Amino acid sequence: MISTPIIVVSGLPRSGTSMMMQMLEAGGVPIYGEARRQADADNPRGYYELARVKELVKTQHHTWLGAAQGKAVKIISPLLQELPGAYAYQVILMNRDLSEVLLSQNKMLARRGQQADKDANDKLRASFAKHLHEIKNWLGQQANFKVIAVDYRQVVNAPAVQAKRLQEFLEINLNLEKMAAVADEKLYRNR
Amino acid sequence: MIDAQIKISVELFGKAEQYARRAGYASVDEFISHILEKELAKLDEAEAQELIKERLKNLGYLS
């Protein structure tokens, strides 16, 4: 086992993963990779997503993860089980109310000219809930995964408290003020 | 609950009856219901996985 953990920010799409990446970056955590998905109206500061992450499900070429040790990388929760067992991971798992997640995803789809009908939403809500339940169970069984659950609403409402929790979890000194400022800005934008 | 009836071949019914007895089911109806429930749960799971995959692709999170 290689000892320096990879910091993985995870969760469903639109559960606050990009905000968490911004917080970590502001706090002084190195971010893995430069070519992030371009910013748009849904994520004005960019998505922190790497094309390589999308390929996790299709390829066995995981060697790039070696360079991500000690850095933060965003990997959505449906891809977590594709991560190789050769590395250690500190997973920050974002939780957000599923109604808010779906609403935000639907807005994003609408901007892309796609519509989600109510029936699909109801089925997806159940599927996402099941997925989250299963992934949490799975994570709990992995010796090389250390996990902290972070609630989106709590980050927005009390960012300093959550920043401190993250510092303790990651066991590194972070700039807590700058981290909190990221979430404060988010709150301001959503008013 | 109102019970529904389905038609299956006599041969298949006979086979199901044998397995139901061996496996300790109270009746062949109970055995077939159990098998159907298990298979439908698998289909539900596959559908759920497909829905998530499709949503991730539409949102640009999967290629």
Task: Explain how this protein is built.
The complex is a heterodimer of chains A (191) and B (63). Helices cover 45% and strands 12% of the residues of chain A. Chain A has 191 residues and is α/β, with parallel strands linked by helices. Chain A has a four-stranded parallel sheet with strand order 2-1-3-4. Chain A is globular, with a radius of gyration of 16 Å. Chain A starts with 5 loop residues before the first strand and ends with a helix. Chain B has 63 residues and is mainly alpha-helical. In chain B, helix 1 (10-23) crosses helix 2. Chain A binds chain B through residues 13, 37, 49, 51, 54-55, 57-58, 76, 78, 105, 108-109, 112, 114, 120, 123-124, 126-128, 130-131, and chain B through 47-49, 51-53, 55-56, 58-63.
Observed structural traits:
heterodimer, A: about 190 residues, alpha/beta, 4-stranded parallel sheet, B: about 60 residues, mainly alpha, about 75% helix, elongated
Brief digest:
The complex is a heterodimer of chains A (191) and B (63). By secondary structure, chain A is an alpha/beta fold.
Give the helix/strand layout:
The complex is a heterodimer of chains A (191) and B (63).
Chain A: E1 6-10, H1 17-27, H2 51-54, E2 72-74, E3 89-95, H3 98-111, H4 118-140, E4 145-151, H5 152-157, H6 159-170, H7 176-190
Parallel strand pairs in A: 1-2, 1-3, 3-4
Helix pairs in contact in A: 1-7, 6-7
Chain B: H1 10-23, H2 28-59
Helix pairs in contact in B: 1-2
